[in-house]
Design brief:
By secondary structure, the chain is mostly helical. The chain has a domain of 100 residues: Alpha Horseshoe (Serine Threonine Protein Phosphatase 5, Tetratricopeptide repeat). Helix content is 82%, strand content 0%. Helix 11 packs antiparallel against helix 12. It is extended, with a radius of gyration of 32 Å. About 13% of the residues have low confidence.
Length: 238
C-alpha cells in the first residue's frame, strides 16, 4: 500500500473520531429528513400498503380455497356416483364443478374443479372441451397431474390427433415416475407409436416398461407385444 493511500485512510479514520465532524453529519441528516419528510412518508406508506396487500391477498386466497373445497364435496360425491349432470351443474342446494371453477377460479380447488369438468366432458364425448379444461388444471402433484395429462392424451387420441396424444402420454409417464401408473401411460404411448407405424419407437417403449417396471402387470403384456412387433419387423426386412 503506497503512502498516499495510507494518508487518506488515516484522514478518514480521524474524521470519524472527531466529535465536530460527527455532529455535522448528524445535522446534515436531520436537514435531509426535514426537507424530504413528505416524500419519505409517502414511500413508507406505499411499502406498508404493499405489505398489507400481500398478506391480505394471501389470507383471501386461503379463504377462497377453503370455501371452494367445502363446496366441492357434494360435486365429487355425484362424480363418483356417475351422476355427471349434477356433478357439473349442482343439485339446487350445492354448487357443481362449473360454478366452482368460475367463482373460485384463482384458488387451487377452483383449478381442481377443471380436472373434474374435463374428466366428465371426456366421458360425454366432448373431447375438445375436455382438453381445454384439463389444460387449465395444470397441476404439479404426483397423482392428479399425470392423470390429467393421460386424459388429455385420451381426448387427442379420440380426435385422431396422434402426435399430441403421444406427447401427453409421455408427459404423464415422466411427470412423477412410479410403478403404479407410469407403466400404463407408457403402454398407451407405445400403442400410439404402433398406430403411427413407428415400430422401432414402440419396441423401445415396450422395452422401457419391461426393464423399469418388470413387476407390473403391464410388463407381461409388453413382453408379448414387443415380441410380436420384433417378429413383424424382422419379417418385413427379409
Amino acid at each position: 500500500m503506497n503512502q498516499e493511500l495510507k494518508d487518506k485512510i488515516v484522514e478518514k479514520e480521524s474524521a470519524l473520531e472527531n466529535p465536530e465532524v460527527i455532529v455535522e453529519k448528524l445535522t446534515d441528516f436531520e436537514h435531509y429528513l426535514e426537507n424530504n419528510a413528505k416524500k419519505l412518508g409517502i414511500f413508507a406508506g406505499v411499502v406498508a400498503l404493499v405489505i398489507a396487500g400481500f398478506f391480505g391477498y394471501k389470507y383471501w386466497m386461503g379463504t377462497q380455497n377453503d370455501e371452494a373445497q367445502a363446496q366441492m364435496y357434494s360435486a365429487i360425491y355425484y362424480f363418483e356416483a356417475d351422476s355427471l349432470k349434477k356433478a357439473l351443474n349442482g343439485d339446487g342446494n350445492n354448487l357443481g364443478f362449473l360454478t366452482i371453477a368460475e367463482d373460485y377460479s384463482m384458488s387451487k380447488a377452483g383449478k381442481l374443479a377443471h380436472f373434474y369438468i374435463g374428466s366428465i366432458y371426456l366421458k360425454q364425448g366432448k373431447f375438445q372441451d375436455a382438453i381445454d379444461n384439463l389444460k387449465v388444471y395444470d397441476g404439479s402433484d404426483m397423482l392428479v397431474g399425470p392423470r390429467a395429462n393421460c386424459l388429455i392424451g385420451d381426448a387427442y387420441l379420440e380426435l385422431n390427433n396422434l402426435d399430441d396424444a403421444l406427447q401427453y402420454y409421455k408427459k404423464a409417464a415422466l411427470h412423477a415416475p412410479n410403478k403404479y401408473f407410469s407403466p400404463r401411460y407408457l403402454m398407451k404411448a407405445a400403442l400410439v407409436q404402433e398406430l403411427q407405424k413407428n415400430y422401432s419407437d414402440a419396441i423401445s417403449t415396450y422395452g422401457q416398461v419391461i426393464e423399469k417396471y418388470y413387476e407390473s402387470q403391464e410388463a407381461t403384456d409388453a413382453k408379448k407385444l414387443k415380441a410380436r412387433l420384433e417378429q413383424m419387423v424382422e419379417g418385413t426386412s427379409k
